[in-house]
Write a structure and sequence with these properties.
By secondary structure, the protein is mainly alpha-helical. Among the domains are: 38 residues, no CATH class; 90 residues, no CATH class. The chain contains 8 helices and 2 strands. A two-stranded antiparallel sheet has the order 1-2. A hairpin with a 2-residue loop joins strand 1 and strand 2. The chain is flat. The N and C termini lie far apart (108 Å). Its cofactor is heme. This is Cytochrome P450. Belongs to the cytochrome P450 family.
Length: 211
């Protein structure tokens, strides 16, 4: 065999060996349509199931809210009719029992009205006055330190009809005063606060902004 023929045959074999892996790589890169379509269908089925579950949970919450509103409305109507009939009966004890019942109801609501367990702990508050009788005219650091020892680093005081949250932990105080300073920097205007702080001169009860 001539030398040029042997070289030509060797070159063909070499080209075939190089071309075969390239075809294999190209075929491996192409997605398999039979395995790709079921995956897309499975993903769409999961999305539909999650959407149905969310819609079902929304319907359940709306139904529960409607039931609660109906129960509260029925209870308020029943209490109104009962009190109306009780007052119209003109019993001798109505004048004494009705104010006592109202006072007890306000006291129980003030003691247990902590937002469903979400409000910080704090001392029991009196109706209308709250904790003003305990605080007095001097909301000093000794009183707040004693309250923090008893109720923890975050506790609640009720001053009149307003709730005051006190933070005595250094890290939480930095979070409140520095990191979230704009959100917690202002205080609501109140006549009671003005009386006890000389028209809002105290920095704790001052209003955020120019005034």
């Amino acid at each position: 065999m001539p030398p040029f023929a042997l070289a030509s045959l060797t070159q063909r074999i070499w080209f075939r060996r190089r071309a075969t892996p390239n075809r294999t790589r190209v075929s491996n890169r192409l997605p398999n349509s039979h395995s790709y379509q079921p995956q897309r269908r499975h993903t769409s089925v999961k999305a539909k199931q999650s959407t149905r579950a969310q819609a079902h949970s929304v319907e359940l919450s709306m139904a529960a809210s409607a039931v609660r509103v109906a129960i509260a409305t029925g209870a308020s109507i029943a209490v109104h009719l009962f009190l109306k009939s009780f007052v119209q009966a003109q019993h001798p004890a109505v004048t004494l029992l009705l104010p006592v019942a109202v006072f007890v109801g306000i006291a129980v609501g003030a003691k247990g009205g902590n937002g469903g367990g979400k409000a910080p702990p704090g001392p029991a508050a009196l109706p209308v006055f709250g904790n003003w009788l305990q605080v007095g005219n001097d909301l000093n650091h000794r009183f707040l330190a004693a309250m923090s020892v008893r109720y923890g680093p975050v506790f609640r005081l009720r001053l009149g009809v307003r709730n005051l949250v006190v933070v005595s932990d250094p890290k939480l105080a930095t979070e409140v005063l520095h990191t979230q300073g704009v959100e917690f920097g202002s205080r609501p205007c109140s006549v009671v606060f003005d009386i006890f702080t000389t028209n809002g001169a105290d920095m704790v009860f001052t209003e955020y902004g120019d005034h």
